[in-house]
Amino acid sequence: MRLDALEPEDLDGHTIDELADYLDAGMLPADPSIDDSAACQNALAALVRLRQSSLGSLDAAAEQEAPADESWIGGVLANISLEARAGRDVPLRPSVPTERPVMTEGAIRSLVRTAGDVVPGVVIARCSLQGDVTLLDAPVRVLVELAIRAGTPIHATAEQVRQAVAETLAEQTDLVVEAVDVRVRDLLPPLPPRHDDGAVPGAPGAIDEEDPA
């Protein structure tokens, strides 16, 4: 699976492929053009979360997953590339009248991904801020699209994501969040059995498909 078509201008001249290779190399030797780029750092953090969220390394996913899943992974990576852009300046509440503190839209999207991805059995596919985020106190809606691992309670997990995102934005931004809309757009296949102890990840608390939870 090649991702060279993704927009390098959104990542300060780099591609997702290059960032994945840099991550695989342990980020050594150090590359200041990546290390000093906020967009690249956001994308690297999202790549780490994507791998830790159960999809494994990108190469393994491309080899082992069905074509539909490979296409889905590519879509997630494309969104990471786009969302890593700085985007609009989002004002923060100043502590003194002469200050004009701001937070980039890309940094806020990274916060949303971080909050959502820590919920077990979830991979964030896309997140967006809807509304005029450039105006302090303007109402904003947050849309989070995600995939849930099969066997994970859908309604309860989506609510966990909604609460995690809402709490993170309330603590770390001054956005007036009117609503956090969570949309489940994909169901990922169950994880294979673990090789260390034979346990199946996600088995505790798993539900049958007909379970209304």
Description:
This protein has 213 residues and is an alpha+beta fold. It has seven helices and five strands, in the order αααααββαββαβ. The chain has helices spanning 16-24, 32-35, 38-55, 58-64, 67-83, 105-117, 154-172; strands at 89-91, 102-104, 122-130, 139-149, 176-188. It has a three-stranded mixed sheet. A two-stranded antiparallel ribbon has the order 1-2. The longest helix is centred in the last third of the chain and has 19 residues, at 154-172.
Question: Could you give a quick summary of the protein structure above?
Answer:
This protein has helices at 16-24, 32-35, 38-55, 58-64, 67-83, 105-117, 154-172, and strands spanning 89-91, 102-104, 122-130, 139-149, 176-188.
What characteristics describe this protein?
213 residues; 41% helix; alpha+beta; disordered N terminus; Alpha-Beta Plaits; Asp23/Gls24 family envelope stress response protein; 3-stranded mixed sheet; disordered C terminus
